[in-house]
Amino acid sequence: MAELQLKSLEKTYGGGFKAVHGIDLTVQEGEFMVLVGPSGCAKSTTLRMIAGLETITGGEIRIGNRVVNDIVPGKRGIAMVFQNYALYPHMKVRNNLSFGLRLKGRPKPEIEGATQDVSRVLEIEALLDRLPKQLSGGQAQRVAVGRALIKQPEVFLFDEPLSNLDAKLRASMRVRITDLHKRLKSEGRPATVVYVTHDQVEAMTMGDRICVMREGHIMQVADPTTLYEQPANSFVAGFIGMPEMNLIDAILTTAGGIPSITIGDQTIAISEGLGDRLSIGEGPVKFGIRPQHVDVCPGGTENCFSGTITTAEFLGHEVNLHIRINGETFVAVVPSDHFSTIPRRGEVVAIRPIGQRIHLFDRLTEENISLGSL
Amino acid sequence: MTTSIDFPAAKHAERTAKASPLEIKLRRKRMISSMIRYTVLTVVGLIMLYPLIWLIGASFKTNSEIFASPSFWPENPTLSGYINGWETSTPYTFARFFWNTFLIITPKVIGTAISCTLVAYGFARFDFPGKRILFATVIATLLLPNVVTRIPQYLLFRDIGWLDSFLPLWVPSAMAGDAFFVFMLIQFLRAIPRDMEEAARVDGANTFQTLIYIVVPMLMPAIISVCLFQFMWTMNDFLGPLIYISSVENYPVSLALKLSIDTTEAFDWNQILAMSVLTLAPSLIVFFLAQKYFIEGISTGGVKG
């Protein structure tokens, strides 16, 4: 296992389109790194460059101590799991697993032993003599993981491996892959993993660290908690979390040392949890608060934004309220038992953001200006 | 819950047990309509096949009987057509002509399969300078009528000294000269996702290994179709051998069939028909043996992910 380093990595296509803009990223030995972002953010391109399936037009990729820019995929010490499994349709599972080893001309007993080992780990022993078309989606996915595992590569690459599975299977495969990663670590052969997904649930649950990308730039690299609690910019803030963080244009003032937020013609003072974090004093900002971090009070409560409910989505244990404040829609997630009766459309309510949970972003640079000394 | 599931099932069972008069009427209507359909199909099918059936029947008839009755069933079945036809009026038997055909077809089919696969792989999977122009050339030759190239080709092969040999008949095809097959394989390859090839590269296969171990097996239905087409077309090719082969000892069967018409004044039709049946046989046998792949090959991309 080895460390993976990307240094000012660039990808420019023939037509002059720049897909990757000089990104720097270090994946520690044995680390599970998730690349996440909306479609078109170049996360798959980056992964394919690491694999050697796309040429590199600038910068450097290092695996361990080697620069691998010009090394063919087969000699980079990587293994890859593809989105649609990419099992060889004409080979039995056994041969799919051992194809790489057979190409290398390894002795038969060794290949047989490795195949048995891997199929035991992934519980696919009973499938060894089947063809890929006789496998279910989940089984095919396990074989694809096995084909990567058997090579004992330095870096594992996963390209949206679970997106073709149904929701239930995806959840169980997620657990399987994380378990496998932990098990390998505890057995003393830690696996460095780069995992591409567009699904933030996968990213948050699987990654040791997550790299959020947008249009070929890295927006933030951090562990899941940091990403959720201290997003570096409004893009990360909006991308991570369900439902999305509320991001609303507002004015920040600090009259008398107490910061106040103005949305339209409503102003509330945030007496605690915000003042000491701010890196600028006043001005137009993007005000961000997660739907879960809002107190909903009866209409008319002091020092709250007042708004009208436009939609109330009852989800059982909680209610998603869409509240209209000065033409902006605000989403609040409230536990169902917070109310004696579920609020209805048209009802006027007051909402108070929890001071410690407020994020303010620069409207131009989109950077978080409320991280303070954190 | 259970009652709501059981109820329709019970109702259905009841319904099938005691069909209403309306249903009986509908069922009868359906049966009559399918009977008509199958009758029409059978009749049309027989009309289409009749020449072939007649050919086989007539090959067992005597010469005098062939034109006497339109029925395909021989009154006095005889093998003389086969025996005399096989002997031919030349010093060679038909075995010789079949052998000649075999000597043309074998290198042609194998060469076509290999060369067209290589060329199609190159066009479908790699970028190289001049690719567009070269591909346009391939398509252009596809559109070119065969006749246009006959004379220049003849002159070329005459200058090389290949006349009256099998070489002009199979070498161009074995060098991917049949644009149709190249085009057909390219279209197949385009329909196959590249992921498997990329997986093979990650597994350590080089370009050639990827082609042999991954691409060719996935392309197999298409390659088999190519071989079949080439086999049948070569078997039936008359003009090619007519132009390039001059001595009787080199005649393939398609030319040899013409021999019996040329050399005798009173045609021995039963001999010609008997040898026609034999000439048809290889194509038919090969087609039926490979039918499964052939139909899979021309109807789909042939590969299920």
From TrEMBL, chain A:
Transmembrane segments: none annotated. InterPro entries: AAA+_ATPase (IPR003593), ABC_transporter-like_ATP-bd (IPR003439), ABC_transporter-like_CS (IPR017871), ABC_transpr_MalK-like (IPR015855), ABC_transpr_MalK/UgpC-like (IPR047641), Mo/tungstate-bd_C_term_dom (IPR008995), NA-bd_OB-fold (IPR012340), P-loop_NTPase (IPR027417). SUPFAM superfamilies: MOP-like (SSF50331), P-loop containing nucleoside triphosphate hydrolases (SSF52540). It comes from the Bacteria. Its main location: membrane. GO terms for molecular function: ABC-type maltose transporter activity; ATP binding; ATP hydrolysis activity. Gene3D superfamilies: 2.40.50.100, Nucleic acid-binding proteins, P-loop containing nucleotide triphosphate hydrolases. Keywords: ATP-binding, Nucleotide-binding, Transport. The keyword Transport applies. Residues 4-240 form the ABC transporter domain. The keyword Nucleotide-binding applies. One of its GO terms (cellular component) is maltose transport complex. It is a peripheral membrane protein. It is found in: Cell inner membrane. Belongs to the ABC transporter superfamily. This is Sugar ABC transporter ATP-binding protein. It comes from Roseibium aquae. The lineage of its organism: Bacteria, Pseudomonadati, Pseudomonadota, Alphaproteobacteria, Hyphomicrobiales.
From TrEMBL, chain B:
PROSITE patterns: ABC_TM1. It comes from the Bacteria. It is found in: Cell membrane. InterPro entries: MetI-like, MetI-like_sf. SUPFAM superfamilies: MetI-like (SSF161098). The chain crosses the membrane at residues 35-57, 97-121, 133-157, 169-189, 210-233, 272-290. The keyword Lipid biosynthesis does not apply. This is Sugar ABC transporter permease. It comes from Roseibium aquae.
